[in-house]
Amino acid sequence: MSDRFDLTGKVALVTGGSRGLGREMVLAFAEAGADVVITSRKLDACEAVAKEVRDLGRRALPVAAHVGRWPDLDALTEAAYAEFGRVDVLVNNAGMSPLAPSSAETSEELFDKVVGVNFKGPFRLCAEIGRRMAEGEGGSIINVSSSGALMPQPRFGPYAGAKAALNALTTVFALEYGPSVRVNTISAGPFLTDIADHWPAESRERTRSAIGRPGRPEEIVTTALYLASPASSYTTGSLIRVDGGLF
């Protein structure tokens, strides 16, 4: 059974890979045999995770890039292919979800920043890396979305809208680059990553969900491995909720 999740000889690129859910996925992919490209805005943070990957016996490439800037993403893509010659798994994990006082008080700068990181950037990476995957041996793209897209609320309208758009991209690219490239969405609920340090104490302990608590970061790993590996060979264009059964 473990062979179905084997990523030996594969290369994975994870945005927002230096912390939180991204770091968990990076290390899980490395443990499954993949070499990994780790990117976030801070190179030193990427280098720290790259060392962890190398300690597991895998190759790692840390790259600083701002996901909302296409020139950064083009440079990231070129660096990944120059180093490894391929990308087999792309995880669009980087995101930002700042709250605004109200919709009327949401500035254009904030709107553009949220849409840039959560939608504009993933579109570019899906387009560029997905195209190369389709021209080569195929691959898997995982878009990390949010329960906020399915259960939107005031104060984070641009975030909810951008993540809903990201969900739509999954269908777009599954059709455009299939059948050799599979594209799926993980719709993540509340997880106890570093962002949870700013939550009220009650929110760190309980959620309005079937399981009743926030997720532990490592609980994202099995779904990510499933979608990255041959285990999900007949799964594409899908949205998988990993949110504890929020309602």
Outline the structure in words:
The protein is α/β, with parallel strands linked by helices. Helix content is 41%, strand content 16%. The chain has a 7-stranded parallel β-sheet with strand order 3-2-1-4-5-6-7, sandwiched between helices.
Topology record:
Layout: E1 11-15, H1 20-31, E2 35-40, H2 43-55, E3 60-64, H3 70-84, E4 89-92, H4 108-135, E5 139-146, H5 147-150, H6 157-177, E6 181-188, H7 221-228, E7 239-242
Parallel strand pairs: 1-2, 1-4, 2-3, 4-5, 5-6, 6-7
Please tag this protein with its features.
globular, 16% strand, single chain, 247 residues, alpha/beta, 7 helices
Brief overview, please?
By secondary structure, the protein is α/β, with parallel strands linked by helices.
- β-strand amount: 15-25%
Structural class by sheet pairing and helices: alpha/beta
C-alpha-based Rg, rounded: 17 Å
Overall number of strands: 7
Number of helices: 7
Numbering strands along the chain, what is their spatial order in the largest sheet? 3-2-1-4-5-6-7
Q: Helix coverage percent of residues?
A: 40-55%
The first-to-last residue Cα distance is 33 Å
- Write the H/E string, N to C: EHEHEHEHEHHEHE
Low-confidence stretches: none
